[in-house]
Amino acid sequence: MKRILNIVGGLLGLLVLVGLAVALAMTFSGLRREVQPLSQALQSPIETPTLPPYPPPATPTPPGPPATPTVAPTPIPRCTFAARPAPVEPGPPLEAYQFSEPKIVLTHPAAIGIAGWLPDGQRLLITRDVPGTNRQSIDVLDVQTGELSTYAEREGSSGKPVWLAALKAVAYLTLVAEKGEEQPIRYHPELWISYGSPQRVECLISDVWGALAVEPDGKRLWYFSRANLDRPQQLNVETKAIQPAPLDLAPLRYPKYPEPVQSMLGLSAFQIAWHPDGSQLVFYTQPWTFLFDMRTNQICEIDLGRSEPENMPIWAMEAKWSPNGRYLAFITIGSLPDQASGTGAAILYTDLTILDTRTGDLRTLQPAPDINPGQHYVTDIAWAHDSRHLAVLGLVRMDEVGIAYDGLFFVDAVSGEFRRILPDHEFGGAWGWEAAWSPSGSLLAVLCPRILNTSPPTGEGGLCTVQVNWE
What we know:
Elements: E1 26-29, E2 32-35, E3 97-99, E4 103-108, E5 112-117, E6 123-129, E7 135-142, E8 148-155, E9 162-164, E10 169-177, E11 187-194, E12 201-205, E13 209-214, E14 220-225, E15 228-236, E16 242-244, H1 261-264, E17 271-274, E18 280-285, E19 288-293, E20 298-301, E21 315-321, E22 327-333, H2 338-341, E23 351-356, E24 362-365, E25 378-383, E26 389-398, E27 404-412, E28 418-421, E29 435-437, E30 443-447, E31 450-452, E32 458-470
Antiparallel strand pairs: 1-2, 3-32, 4-32, 5-6, 6-7, 7-8, 9-10, 10-11, 11-12, 13-14, 14-15, 15-16, 17-18, 18-19, 19-20, 21-22, 22-23, 23-24, 25-26, 26-27, 27-28, 29-30, 30-32, 31-32
């Protein structure tokens, strides 16, 4: 129940590498979360695994020693794009899109997370926390009929489950206690697959770390092993054959921070975002973002710029391709972790950054308002089917006890215009698990938890759909 009513829901929890202090964390015991101050440290929702808190166990077995470069790094070429502007088809203005009132399609006494739409655009892959435990159910929800099918239960919340279209199955990570009698108990994640129910599950890989990524055709699943966080592995989901990917990321971890900050960063697995046609993929972790071309086996670094006034490298906490593969949307941050910087300052902001991969144009936007001067947060992004517009969740207010609330924003990636939509409603949930746009563009799924009028106040998880029409 670590996430219910965390309306920002682990808002900036990536900060995997040194336990970054991120604002806006809330936890409830039972149905209610204890509110933490803005500067309270928060465990990452991206770094995996999330550990069982009932009772609090030890951290999982570390994947390896800190990544401190000891030799001169290999120069990494910067990605280059066309020098001339590429034509952009005219699109309707923001005002042409109409959004219905949110319709609640599911409630739950604990937190809900959105993993994504299935290809039919009618069913959602979701997670639901099991109240009073550190377990989650992994479910498929039909938003039209309300039918809920549980595929599996897992320990912890180790990254998003993924849909394997080729098998009509779900792959997911679950935490498993290490063998032996060590105290405190140590945990490691395993990769499992469910073929439609908790009774039809299979353990595929016991040596895994980080997030899962499925190729667009659904035939191969990419992951990292604990033994090697720099060489992704490819699992053929039909034959179960495993082979390493044709690249090694270790030489690319060159120093980007000044010492001693660089040496304080731990070794973390890269996240992966696939181009819709499978020709390219983005690897990203603090503070690097790389673009790999599957056709040529060439890799380059995407330069997201440097922050002001910190003059630190901007890095991606989340990356999502537009459906047509032209644009990359990032949730970005450019400040240092408090432990590494030695300043004790909390991470103050996250922005929306959009890269046009045809022209190289880079645009940074701040849809959500400042909560305090310079303090603003983007918490999730979802592309529309037209590859031009995005739904963006961002923090809009904090109440007197520190509970944070998200607003929903509609963004034009080409013009940079944005506006808040459905301003009478507030949304939120676990960072990165809050929203998904259906393939047809007609439905937007968004988390809509609510506080119940009880004494003391309690909360429940909610999932809503918004009907989208355009002229």
